[in-house]
Write a structure and sequence with these properties.
- The chain is of the alpha+beta class and 360 residues long.
- It folds into two domains: 87 residues, no CATH class; 246 residues, 2-Layer Sandwich (BirA Bifunctional Protein, domain 2), CATH 3.30.930.
- Helices cover 41% and strands 18% of the residues.
- The chain has 13 helices and nine strands.
- The longest helix is centred in the first third of the chain and has 41 residues.
- It is rod-shaped and about 135 Å long.
- The structure holds phenylalanine (PHE).
- Phenylalanine (PHE) binds next to β8 and β9.
């Protein structure tokens, strides 16, 4: 019976081997080596039991069967052991290290022109103005006629104004056709001044409004000219409003926008809807008036157009010019961006190149 080794010796050998196994694959190899259906060591021994005498079968049978059961237990225990080790490892690798620096989140922000409009509005809010709005598609009445723009004014020319196709066809000479407030929109507003008209039409004085918005001009685009750009209109109408109010308000605005030391100067100008009219310059806050490249050596930077509301405009809106007076101004948003940030090609504000926009 020497071909039947002692079951305990076999058990010890198998146990040692199983305990040393470090992976599920190696464990499967060990299982096949002992219990594999064809070549397993114990399987072969069990097969040989069939050829033994009854007494020998009785002796070895139970011993080898319990050895087999024991091996199966050991394999199952080791499998469970390896699986739980694997789970623990996975959990350890998965742990969240809250001390690691986080991946930065890229935030969007407002477009620089929107930022400027917001800051202009908030400056004027602090001075008691409210924000008003009007349509971008206008008609002759609001864009020109109610603003005292004469019928033959060059600004009404199709070279300067975008007319809607139907209107342009119909109005080969647009100024010869009488225009009315209730006329269909037939052009894209060339300035924000029509909002003045709409506000005066709707609300009685006192009025103190600003209206930022998009405007359109039939221009060939280059670094300093755009066909679509932005303005902010301002209008104040009440009893006793004088040019001093205009100067005081716009002077304060320039200081709040640029620097507290900024000075303003007014030069005569002309707009059909204001009388008198002026251009307002601000002293260059970079060189403080000494002259530098930003102000082209003059010490002054041209900022906006303004004036006292023309009495004809007031009476057209049924506001008595004997009782009420007002001032108005219009400021270019891109112009402020140009001055404030030194961006000398305005087209950059419309190209949406994030490398440019991220700088604001
Ligand atoms: N509407 C004028 C322009 O577009 C600006 C302006 C507004 C001037 C109000 C005076 C008063 O140039």
């Amino acid at each position: 019976m020497s071909q039947f080794p002692d079951p305990n010796t076999l058990l010890q050998e198998a146990q040692k081997q199983i305990e040393q196994v470090r992976s599920l694959d190696a464990l499967e190899e060990a299982r096949i080596a002992w219990l594999g259906r064809k070549e397993g060591r114990l399987t072969l021994l069990l097969k040989q039991l069939g050829g033994l005498s009854i007494e020998e079968k009785k002796l070895y049978g139970p011993q080898y069967n319990s050895l087999k059961a024991r091996l199966e237990e050991l394999l199952a225990a080791q499998e469970e052991n390896l699986r739980s080790q694997e789970r623990r490892r996975a959990l350890e690798n998965d742990t969240l290290d809250i001390t690691l620096p986080g991946a930065p989140v890229a935030y969007g922000h407002l477009h620089p022109l929107s930022q400027i409009m917001d800051s202009l509005v908030s400056i004027f809010r602090s001075l008691g103005f409210v924000c008003a709005d009007g349509p971008e598609m206008e008609n002759d009445f609001y864009n020109f006629e109610a603003l005292n723009v004469p019928a033959d004014h060059p600004a009404r020319d199709m070279q300067d104004t975008f007319y809607m196709e139907s209107a342009a066809k119909q109005l080969s000479l647009p100024h010869l056709t009488a225009s009315h407030a209730d006329q269909e929109p037939n052009l894209l507003r060339t300035h924000t001044s029509p909002v003045q008209v709409r506000v005066m039409q709707k609300y009685p004085p006192p009025i103190a409004i600003v209206c930022p918005g998009r405007v359109y001009r039939h221009e060939a685009q280059d670094a300093t000219h755009l066909a679509v750009f932005h303005q902010m209109e301002g209008l104040m109408v009440d009893e006793g409003i004088s040019f001093a109010d205009l100067k005081g308000t716009l002077g304060r605005f320039a200081q709040l926008l640029f620097a507290p030391t900024v000075k303003t100067r007014f030069r005569p100008s002309f707009f059909p809807f204001t009388e008198p009219s002026a251009q307002m310059d601000v002293s260059c806050w970079i060189c403080e008036g000494a002259g530098c490249p930003a102000c082209k050596g003059s010490g002054w930077i041209e900022l906006l157009g303004a004036g006292m509301v023309n009495p004809k405009v007031l009476s057209g809106m049924n506001i008595d010019p004997e009782k009420y007076s007002g001032f108005a101004f219009g400021v270019g948003i891109e112009r402020i961006a140009f001055i404030k940030y030194g961006v000398h090609d305005l087209r950059l504000f419309y190209e949406n190149d994030t490398r440019f926009l991220e700088q604001f």
